[in-house]
Amino acid sequence: MSETEADLRERVEQWMVGQMPIIQMHGGTSVVREADPESGQVVVELGGTCSGCGISNITAQNIKADLIRDFPEIERVEVKVPSTGDTGSDTVEGGRGGDLQYSTENPGHF
Hints:
By secondary structure, the protein is an alpha+beta fold. 32% of the residues lie in helices and 20% in strands. This is NifU family protein.
């Protein structure tokens, strides 16, 4: 039986809650935008105080490396951080937010 996107997304979200509590502790949020078990692609978006944070690029690199290490089916991770201040208002357990929107003005921005 193959894993569905919803299953992988939930597992990654639970991982974020357990492995990256510092995001929420510092007022940030995270949401898994994509989790494709067939392609191995995962997209995580950070928001809240992560936007404009001087160490968000380090956080993004840690998330990328750790997800690939901890999930054999994950081959590629993209972490997006909004460059605008608009991060939505819905935040749930573990700092995951539901309405984050990243800016496409600078696609290389973390």
